[in-house]
Amino acid sequence: MKIMDKVYECIVCGRIFHEGQGIRLSLAGKEVNFHSKSCAIKFLKSLILYLDQKDLENAAKLTIKEFEEKAKEIRERTKKKLEKL
Ligand SMILES: [Zn+2]
User: Fold this and answer.
1) Ligand 1 centroid vs 1 CA: distance in angstroms?
2) Ligand 1 centroid from CA 11, angstroms
3) What class is the 1-50 domain?
4) I need a labelling partner for 66 at 20 to 30 A (CA). Which of 5, 42, 59, 75 fits?
C-alpha cells in the first residue's frame, strides 16, 4: 500500500475510500465524493428534487435527448457491424 494515497470521504454515508475508487464529481465549484454508485444515485436524486421545476424540465429534456442520440448511434453502429458479417 502506498502511503501517499489520497483518501476521500463519501458525502452520503461518510465512508472513507482511496483515490481511484469511488466516484468524484465537481459540482457548483465543489468536489463531492461518493464511495459507491448507489450513494451517488442517492445524492443525485436529492439534487433533482431541489432543482427548480423549470430548470429540471430543461435539464431533463437535454439529458434525455443526449442519451437517446447516443443510444441511437450505438444501435446504428451495431447494425453496421452485423451487416459486415
Ligand atoms: Zn457512501
Assistant:
1) 22
2) 7
3) mainly beta
4) 42
